[in-house]
Amino acid sequence: MVSNMVKTGIVAAVGVTVIVLSSTLGWILVPDIVTSEAIITEDNEAIYGAWKSPPVPFFIQFFLFNCTNCELEGPENSSVVLDLQQLGPFTFSEKRVKFNITEKDGLLTYFEEESYYYEPMGNETSLDEYITTVNPVYFTLASLITDLAPPESVETLSIAMHRLLKDVGEHPFMRRTISEILFEGWSLQPYIKILVMLSDLAGIPLPELPEDPRFGYFYGVNGTDGGEFKIESGANGLDKLGLIRSWNGEKNLNYWNDDFCDMINGTDGAIYPPVVDVNERIYIFVTDLCRSIYTTYERDVETMGITANRFTVPPEVFDDKNPDNFCYCRDHSTNPELCFSAGLLDLRSCQFGAPVVLSTPHFYLGDEKYSNAFTGLKPVKQWHETNIDLEPLTAVPVFISERIQINIDVRRYGIPPRLLDINNTVFPVFWINETAILDQPSADDVTLAVNVINGLNISRWCFLAAGIALVIAGFVMLVIFYPK
């Protein structure tokens, strides 16, 4: 018959064994296995394939502004309030494929090709529809003359530019089809003489131009890549997964002439380190913005049956009163009054001097003076806010909606009011809603992964509790059977 001492020893030994096994398996071996399966490497075929060519459908929708009372020569006088009519959406599917991928020292180097395919949904307006909008080339030339020409020559050259363009039928405003404005582009031949004149004056050599140079906001980008990225694969720690280490071979940007503003922070917005902390900022490097931004937690949402943490871009990211943003204004050190107010980002520094200004759609969260300068603009949180919904454990993006607006800095520059009588304003051209949402198979995979992780977490704590209980029981038995 087994003695009480043996029974006590067995209970205690089993308890200690359970504690050791649950700790080893639950906190060391199983997490190591899970971690190894989450690293983006060619050996992990499933995750590598999904990263290389995301199965999640991406869509990009364009909403263009038609000016209903814009004359091609400009308004009759600066008191005219311009009326904007929003047209859209114009929907394109977006395919992303990474290529030239190399792995070294836990880092992935690659390029990503983006292709767009027109996929109208419902009764969308035709891409052949004409709209009246600001002429970006006209105001780019006017801006460059003001910035680059000797001050005493600015007005003379601006007048010459205005008249030369008028002679060939080009004006401050234009009528183009939606297709031309977006992907098809239009000929820049009428501008060549002026470009040559400006080049000679400023001493800046022009690049070799094609026989038929064209411009469209997305002209020539279909089937191209956004540069070389080098990111963490997760092999150096999952807390670093997806973090960008360099872009086009550089660890920092060179747009803003400031170490802080030129920092490249965060991921590319497609992958994130697992286990989301809602108290921390999530940084994203956005090539279209020529800078890194951050998002903050707003609330929990449910998408495809998955509870996710919603992160949004807070107002202070583009707040002109935020000291962190001073270096994004090229005039702040000389005259802060020349900087844009809240909600805008001047992209001249990374757009070859072109007066392109980015904002949220309808100037949502921006200074009201920008939306109030037009009729037809109505900022609404639901439609104009950028959202990123992350599953908390895996940090898989369940839903992404990135919304930005393209504007042109419209002013007279060096052109006399008798030729162009217009108020200084930021003119909206179009805004973009770029979205991605998990399809059902991907959502099922995420749900399965979350259930497995939760099951492992529950099991290891249950086994640990059982082991501790057995050890305690052993001590209790020792006291009962062998009292002092």
What does it look like?
By secondary structure, the protein is an alpha+beta fold. The strands form 3 sheets. The chain has a 15-stranded mixed sheet that branches. A two-stranded antiparallel sheet has the order 4-5. It has helices at 4-38, 45-52, 136-148, 154-167, 178-184, 192-202, 368-372, 381-384, 440-481, and strands spanning 58-67, 82-104, 107-118, 130-134, 173-177, 186-187, 214-215, 224-225, 229-232, 244-247, 282-286, 291-303, 306-312, 344-346, 356-359, 374-375, 387-390, 397-410, 425-437. It contains 9 helices and 19 strands. It is globular, with a radius of gyration of 29 Å. α1 runs antiparallel to α9 (440-481).
Question: What's the arrangement of secondary structure elements?
Answer:
Layout: H1 4-38, H2 45-52, E1 58-67, E2 82-104, E3 107-118, E4 130-134, H3 136-148, H4 154-167, E5 173-177, H5 178-184, E6 186-187, H6 192-202, E7 214-215, E8 224-225, E9 229-232, E10 244-247, E11 282-286, E12 291-303, E13 306-312, E14 344-346, E15 356-359, H7 368-372, E16 374-375, H8 381-384, E17 387-390, E18 397-410, E19 425-437, H9 440-481
Parallel strand pairs: 2-16
Antiparallel strand pairs: 1-2, 1-19, 2-3, 3-8, 3-9, 4-5, 6-7, 9-10, 11-12, 12-13, 13-17, 14-15, 15-18, 17-18, 18-19
**What is the alpha-carbon Rg in Å?**
29 Å
The geometry reads as globular
Number of helices: 9
- Topology, number of strands: 19
- Share of helical residues: 25-40%
Tell me the major beta sheet.
Answer: 15 strands, mixed
* Estimated structural class: alpha+beta
Amino- and carboxy-terminal Cα gap = 24 Å
Quaternary organization: single chain
Strand coverage percent: 25-35%
- Unreliable segments of 5+ consecutive residues: 6-36, 463-467, 473-478
SSE ordering:
HHEEEEHHEHEHEEEEEEEEEHEHEEEH
Q: Taking all residues together, what is the mean pLDDT?
A: 84
